[in-house]
Specification:
Blueprint (H helix, E strand, L loop, with lengths): L1 H18 L4 H9 L5 H8 L6 E3 L22 E8 L2 E8 L10 H17 L3 E5 L10 H17 L5 E5 L2 E3 L4 H4 L3 E5 L4 E3 L3 H8 L11 H8 L4 E3 L2 H12 L40 H8 L6 E3 L7 E8 L2 E8 L10 H16 L4 E7 L6 H5 L2 H14 L4 E10 H6 L9 E4 L4 E3 L3 H8 L1 H6 L3 H17 L1 H6 L5 E2 L5 H12 L17
Parallel strand pairs: 3-4, 4-5, 5-7, 6-8, 7-9, 12-13, 13-14, 14-15, 14-16, 15-17
Antiparallel strand pairs: 1-2, 2-3, 10-11, 11-12
Helix pairs in contact: 4-5, 11-13, 15-17
Length: about 525
């Protein structure tokens, strides 16, 4: 027993040393800033008592520059598995109190080994980033470690959900691992995400640029579009990660967590009519439509403040998990531009790889006109949406609420782009262009010589709308499943989702398509 007692004493001594991380003083300073420790972050993430740590006793692999005498508990990163809402999840949390959370070869190996385990067992990966970057003392081995992580990020892409939480510094090459994951959550304070800092930018270009201009959560959420969700603090970030996973399957071989206990109800909701503006020139607020369409409090918006002319997010409709993609006419008239195309394309592909049905809400006047858009590559960016929709094999349900003009009609997933069912309200307008523009093109000469050009133009616009814009024209050619009363919307889409859930669609054999980048 004496030997056993001694061995147990050694075990707990080593554990306590790892739990102490960089020391009480460093941990206390973090708490004063409102930050959780690396271990506390994982404790907050996992269901109580479910965490199984991997590699607790791993040490750094460096014997140069005075590092041979240093002890780096867990080599600056805590890795392991546990339950989140009862489902297995793999997670790692970098520890800034241990050598600044710097990444060395063994630090990287712990992360890579965890990710490989997640791939074999089919569980999501959550990475909490809080690191000063590559460990300089390990030189090229540290850089190799980043390369191994990036490679594994790509290997897991489309296999299991990958979520990154930026809860501290994440700079230089380290920023690319989060960028290769499916979702990035970033805290408002105490976190930075960038490739080159202000000093490097100044030295290279002469530009004065503070971190607030490009590296903060606000900058990434509104301007660059690099992140998906903004958190108030560490605990909020973890709650957002948990909620995000609640809409996704554990891996690409599973269906999302639908709730089939809810019956499909075709009951009418007359309040839908109230969201449609009386005048076609008045903007429709698509959030009002979404709130009536989805189950109460189920809409979880993604990239809410980036490219606000299109709205993306997860929701539930009578228990079924869906991805919502909606034009927002209240911002930039709902036009599709470069940023909106990128935002929508990425979300479409995310839904597709994780078997999430897509519901499209359409009110789009076209692609954004302008020299900046043309020179910026709107053709290439818009083509991403066409590619994403055409290659998606999940159920795709489209509702045309009002305008659906030109190429944007196609880019929002019409029947010809693979929509399984397309519904339209009587207010829908489907055409190459709006009546005003079409009349000017078709009857320009007649209008110039007419005695009363305004009266003639109004008459021609009315005729054009009736002959070419009416949803019944598209319906008569089999391009619309049904023209429905807005009050029937929720029931019709819920039924369409249930009917298409067993959809199976294959593609010609190939490595992968070549999306326009």
């Amino acid at each position: 027993m004496a030997i056993a007692d001694k061995l147990m004493e050694e075990l707990y001594k080593r554990r306590n040393a790892v739990f102490a991380a960089g020391g009480k003083d460093k941990l206390e300073k973090r708490r004063q800033k409102g930050l959780l420790s690396a271990r506390e972050r994982l404790e907050a993430l996992f269901d109580e008592g479910s965490f199984q740590e991997f590699g607790m006793h791993v040490q750094h692999n460096c014997h140069n520059f005075g590092m041979e005498k240093k002890v780096l508990p867990a080599d600056g990163v805590i890795t392991g598995i546990g339950l989140v809402g009862g489902r297995p999840v793999a997670a790692f949390s970098q520890d800034f109190t241990v050598s600044g959370g710097s990444l060395g070869s063994n630090h990287a190996k712990k992360i890579v080994d965890l990710m490989k385990f997640a791939g074999k067992t089919g569980m999501p990966v959550i990475g909490i980033n809080d690191s000063g970057g590559a460990r300089i003392q390990e030189g090229v081995e540290a850089l190799a470690g980043y390369g191994q992580i990036f490679y594994q990020n790509v290997a897991l892409s489309g296999v299991v959900p990958q979520v990154s939480i930026i809860a501290g510094p994440c700079a230089g090459g380290a920023a690319y691992s989060p960028a290769l994951m499916d979702f990035i959550i970033m805290t408002k304070k105490n976190s930075d995400l960038f490739i080159c800092g202000p000093q490097v930018i100044k030295a290279a270009t002469g530009e004065e640029a503070s971190v607030e201009m490009f590296a903060t959560a606000d900058a990434h959420a509104t301007v660059s579009g690099n992140i998906h969700l903004v958190a108030n603090d560490d605990k909020h970030a973890i709650l957002l990660a948990e909620k995000l996973l609640s809409y996704l399957p554990s891996n690409n071989m599973q269906e999302p967590p639908h709730d089939f206990s809810q019956p499909v109800k075709r009951e009418r909701d007359e309040s839908f009519n109230a969201v449609i503006p009386a005048s076609p020139q008045e903007a429709l607020d698509v959030y009002k439509v979404i709130s009536k369409l989805v189950d109460a409090d189920s809409f979880f918006e993604i990239q809410a403040n980036f490219a606000r002319n299109i709205v993306t997010g997860f929701a539930r409709i009578q228990g079924m998990v869906v991805g919502i993609i909606a034009n927002q006419p209240a911002y930039k008239a709902g036009c599709l531009d470069i940023d909106a195309s990128d935002k929508a394309s990425r979300f479409i592909r995310t839904c597709n790889v994780f078997n999430v049905p897509i519901v499209n809400l359409v009110d789009v006047p076209g692609f954004m006109p302008g020299l900046a858009q043309e020179r910026g590559g709107i053709i290439r960016h818009g083509a991403k949406m066409l590619f994403a929709y055409a290659s998606a094999t999940v159920p795709k349900i489209t509702l045309i609420m009002r305008k659906a003009y030109g190429g944007a009609y196609l880019a929002m997933c019409c029947v010809d782009m693979g929509a399984d069912m397309v519904f339209a309200w009587p207010t829908a307008e489907i055409a190459v262009m709006g009546a005003k523009g079409a009349v000017n093109v078709l009857y320009g000469k007649e209008l110039k010589t007419a005695e009363n050009p305004e009266e003639l133009a109004a008459k021609l616009r009315e005729e054009y709308s009736e002959k070419f814009q009416s949803p019944y024209q598209a319906a008569s050619k089999g391009m619309i499943t049904d023209v429905i009363d807005p009050a029937e919307t929720r029931g019709a889409i819920a039924m369409a989702l249930r009917a298409t859930l067993s959809k199976r669609e294959t593609r010609l054999p190939k490595k992968h398509g070549n999306i326009p980048m």
